[in-house]
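Table S2 (text version). Query chain:
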Amino acid sequence: MRYAIVIEKAENNFSGYVPDLPGCVATGATVEETESILREAIEFHLAGLREDGTPIPQPSSRVDYVEVAV
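Corresponding structure-token output:
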């Protein structure tokens, strides 16, 4: 599966989340570290859903950029 992730700059680190998996979050010192930890968090989150017998949400979020004049 391919899930969209969002990584944002925090005050002293980066934080990330998965829009299609509420509660699946991670933090790291760099974007790369946050993405790596978030990948593990997604796998752990999905394993927990399977263990609980909860359906796994299909990826449905779309990520894109828009350009605006400044």
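Notes on Table S2: The CA atoms of residues 31 and 50 lie 28 Å apart. The first strand starts at residue 6 and ends at 9.
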